[in-house]
Amino acid sequence: MGRADSVPKLGSKTNLLLSDPVSELDVDEEADDSIQVLYTASFEELASKNVQYDTIIWFSISLLLVLAWGVGIFMLLYLPFRRYVLWKDIASRKLYVTSKEIVYKISRPSYIPFWGETRIEKHVPLSLIIDIIIEQGCLQSVYGLHTFRVESIAHGKASPVDELRVQGVSNPGILRKVVVAQASKAIQDASRSWNPNFQTPGVENISRMESLTLGPAVLLSPSKGWKVNSKS
After folding, report:
1. CA atoms of 19 and 130, how far apart (whole Å)
2. Lower Cβ count inside 10 Å, N or C end of the chain?
3. Where are the coiled-coil regions (predicted)?
4. Tens digits of per-residue pLDDT, 125-152?
């Protein structure tokens, strides 16, 4: 998490960027044709470890409840179905970054048997993002998993809220850097549209922003600029 890897150039030919991203991600036909996916995250590499991690947590809680009230017996019987739903969940996950927002989609069976299918879709505007956090607990470190969190400004809320929280993303550090680079552009574009006299930052400011992009974590703030965030 402490490494400062370089941000891949958007549009360059790399396995992290899609050559024909819109068609590969099956973006809805009703979506704007001008939308271009710049980066797509992957969950396949850590799918089995993610399921194992969740199984250990569920199994441990079940054993404690068996000793306490006996409810854990039903939780143990439910475990195979929970693993099945989690596999479907991970297989259906789509997380990608466009020039305007982060999009996260899930389509899986309900955790309640015979309740049909559950669909979740989240859109996080890049111009409202103020913090990107990558967390790793003790047990997560054993399986090489991280929790990727995106905090943004919410209307009517006094403090930032978690707009997106997802576990099991491959290469979360690279995803963070791509989001930081695109959020910087989105914030500048929003400033220009709000203030016609907005001027592009000088060379010194641009260099400082690029150096922050290569840091371990970044706090994005439309009002206060860029600050180094030491969360890990």
Report:
1. 29
2. C
3. none
4. 998 898 899 999 999 999 999 999 998 8
